[in-house]
């Protein structure tokens, strides 16, 4: 591992020291108190808030800023990422158009555009909802299930820097991300 690489930075963030990574990151006890520039009349912010913001920025950058996997899955399936997300949301089972729009955080007319395209490609089918004939539900076809499986495979492939972390660091990240899933 080379100092300055994402893997070495992750090792440092995790509080471990590898020969190339340098000293460990400060522990929580070291960062208690206040941090950041003082603003006249403002309450001092606890350093833990800054640490949380810093960690969040890093996580956001790792997932959204380095979107090679997003590009890869879009190119592999020849679909926009919102259409890939729709396939993945449908993988557990059929959804109504309303529920799908909500889960994708898009409005219902745009959900219709997304599903129209997936239906034209033979990846989804619309049927009458079994409990409410006024409502349509969307489900994956066999081809859609294959595409969703491929999307999941591509998106689940960890980046090399993450895969290169020592097992103890991966176990710590696993524990921490599992704790964050509950919010």
TrEMBL record:
Molecular-function GO terms, alphabetical: DNA-binding transcription factor activity
Gene3D superfamilies from the UniProt entry: Winged helix-like DNA-binding domain superfamily/Winged helix DNA-binding domain
Species of the source: Pseudofrankia inefficax (strain DSM 45817 / CECT 9037 / DDB 130130 / EuI1c) (Frankia inefficax)
Coiled-coil ranges (or none): none
Region span, Disordered: 1-48
SMART domains attached to this UniProt entry: HTH_MARR (SM00347)
Biased composition regions of type Low complexity, renumbered to the chain: 10-20
InterPro entries found in the cross-reference section: HTH_MarR-typ, MarR/SlyA-like, WH-like_DNA-bd_sf, WH_DNA-bd_sf
Domain HTH marR-type: 52-182
A GO BP annotation: response to stress
Domain of life: Bacteria
The protein, known as: Regulatory protein MarR
Database matches in Pfam families: MarR (PF01047)
């Amino acid at each position: 591992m080379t100092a300055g690489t994402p893997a070495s930075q992750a090792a440092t963030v995790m509080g471990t020291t590898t020969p190339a990574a340098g000293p460990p990151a400060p522990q929580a006890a070291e960062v208690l108190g206040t941090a950041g520039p003082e603003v006249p009349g403002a309450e001092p912010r606890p350093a833990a808030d800054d640490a949380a913001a810093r960690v969040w920025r890093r996580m956001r950058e790792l997932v959204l800023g380095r979107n090679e996997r997003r590009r890869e899955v879009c190119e592999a399936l020849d679909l926009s990422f919102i259409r890939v997300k729709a396939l993945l949301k449908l993988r557990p089972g059929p959804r109504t158009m309303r529920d799908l729009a909500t889960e994708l955080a898009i409005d219902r007319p745009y959900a219709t555009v997304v599903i129209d395209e997936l239906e034209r490609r033979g990846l989804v089918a619309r049927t009458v909802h079994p409990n409410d004939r006024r409502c349509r539900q969307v489900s994956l076809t066999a081809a859609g299930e294959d595409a969703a499986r491929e999307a999941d495979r591509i998106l689940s492939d960890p980046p090399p820097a993450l895969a290169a972390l020592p097992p103890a660091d991966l176990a710590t990240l696993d524990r921490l991300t599992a704790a964050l899933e509950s919010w």
